[in-house]
Design brief:
The complex is a heterodimer of chains A (280) and B (83).
Chain A: H1 20-37, H2 39-66, H3 70-104, E1 113-119, E2 128-131, E3 144-147, E4 157-165, E5 170-174, E6 180-186, E7 191-199, E8 202-208, E9 218-223, E10 225-237, E11 243-250, E12 259-263, H4 267-272, E13 273-275
Antiparallel strand pairs in A: 1-2, 1-12, 2-5, 3-4, 3-12, 4-5, 6-7, 6-9, 6-13, 7-8, 8-11, 9-10, 10-11
Helix pairs in contact in A: 1-2
Chain B: H1 2-15, H2 18-31, H3 35-47, H4 57-82
Classes of the chains: A alpha+beta (280), B mainly alpha (83).
Chain lengths: 280, 83
């Protein structure tokens, strides 16, 4: 007698229902498993793609800059040269003051590590930097990251703290990450305030109107001493309120950071850095 | 076509600003409702820092978008069948 075999079908998932989305989701779930089980291996695999993306972004910026209007660029260049001269003079004065302060403050000037940035905002929606340096290179959670300008490793512009670490990679959460609160000071009188990250290198803070903070005042965060984080760019004031809201912009554009120097700054910076959701 | 759109949205998570990634994901979602969930998951794989943020927002946002799309699709399908 002839026996008929019928293939058993799954009521929920028939081969016809399986779309590309399911395959891709399966792939991402596999990557998630790899990320959870072996985070360092995951980032080792992802690093070439992230580096490629970074290179493409830089090339596209250069291309866009090259086709921009030359007369506007010349005018801007002249303005920047003038500003550069002024800043150079100011820098010399500050360097002399800094040399004295550095002797007073504990800790050397040499960074523990200079690491290249693999991914940064705006690709990263959380205002985090993924850097190619981890515990194997001597990094520890809580180290403070400083932006390094090309050709110089002595820049002291703090940008965030190391919050996540694997053997070869680390993530730096920027002070400007949405919801992150950082204690700091504003102005020459060093008035204390709490900076609230609003994303993309910007902050807001509330301070009493009587404090007489003005636009252009520098904002500082803890580190080895007081470190200039940015400046007040706008003050929103309601006539009925005794407080004003300061809009602060970081000194360094987080979108263009390609190298970071990492210092162990002790607990001062870590204590100043809190996640908004974990604070009352 | 769906595969290409999904690939483009996932590549965008590495190459382009996250706002553009969301835009491309929404375009892909027209063809493939699962794409918001998988792109959200992929973005969190790369950028979410558990030590700082309590919730993987991109995954949650993607899951919400996928569920909404599946619901809308099922409604549309049933309304077509009634006719």
């Amino acid at each position: 007698m002839k026996k008929t075999f019928l293939t058993r079908r799954n009521a929920l998932l028939t081969p016809g229902n399986v779309s590309w989305g399911w395959y891709a989701l399966g792939g991402v779930v596999l990557l998630l498993a790899l990320r959870l089980i072996a985070p360092n291996a995951f980032f080792t695999l992802a690093a070439p793609f992230l580096r490629g993306g970074d290179l493409l972004t830089q090339k596209s910026h250069l291309f866009i800059a090259s086709i921009a209007d030359h007369s506007v660029l010349m005018e801007r260049n002249n303005l920047l040269e003038h500003e550069n001269t002024l800043l150079s003079l100011e820098n010399q004065t500050l360097r002399a003051q800094y040399a004295v302060l550095d002797i007073l403050v504990a800790g050397g000037d040499e960074p523990r590590l200079v690491a290249p940035v693999l991914a940064r905002p705006p690709e990263s929606p959380y205002d985090t930097l993924l850097i190619a340096g981890g515990s194997r290179a001597g990094l520890t959670r809580g180290m403070e990251a400083f932006a390094v300008t090309t050709g110089s490793t002595s820049t002291r512009a703090p940008i965030g703290l190391v919050t996540d670490l694997t053997a070869d990679f680390a993530r730096v959460t920027l002070f400007s990450a949405p919801g992150v609160r950082t204690s700091g000071w504003v102005g020459t009188r060093a008035l204390p305030l709490t900076l609230i990250g609003t994303g993309a290198g910007t902050f807001s803070a509330t301070i009493a109107r009587a404090a007489l903070v003005s636009e252009g005042d520098a904002v500082f965060v803890p580190g080895p001493g007081m470190l200039a984080l940015g400046k007040v760019t706008r003050i929103d004031a309601d006539p009925a309120s005794p407080a004003v809201t300061l809009r602060i912009t970081a000194a360094v554009n987080p979108f263009s950071v390609s190298l970071v120097a990492l210092y162990d700054v002790g607990t001062a910076a870590q204590d100043a850095f809190r996640v908004g959701s974990s604070t009352p | 076509m769906s595969a290409l759109l999904i690939l483009l949205a996932c590549s965008s998570a590495i190459l382009f600003p996250w706002q553009l990634t969301i835009f491309l994901t929404l375009i892909a979602a027209v063809r493939e409702p699962l794409s918001p969930l998988l792109v959200g998951l992929f973005m969190d794989l790369l950028y979410f820092s558990g030590g700082t943020f309590s919730l993987p927002r991109m995954t949650l946002l993607g899951a919400f978008a996928t569920l909404s799309l599946l619901l809308v699709r099922s409604r549309l399908r049933s309304s077509i069948m009634v006719r």
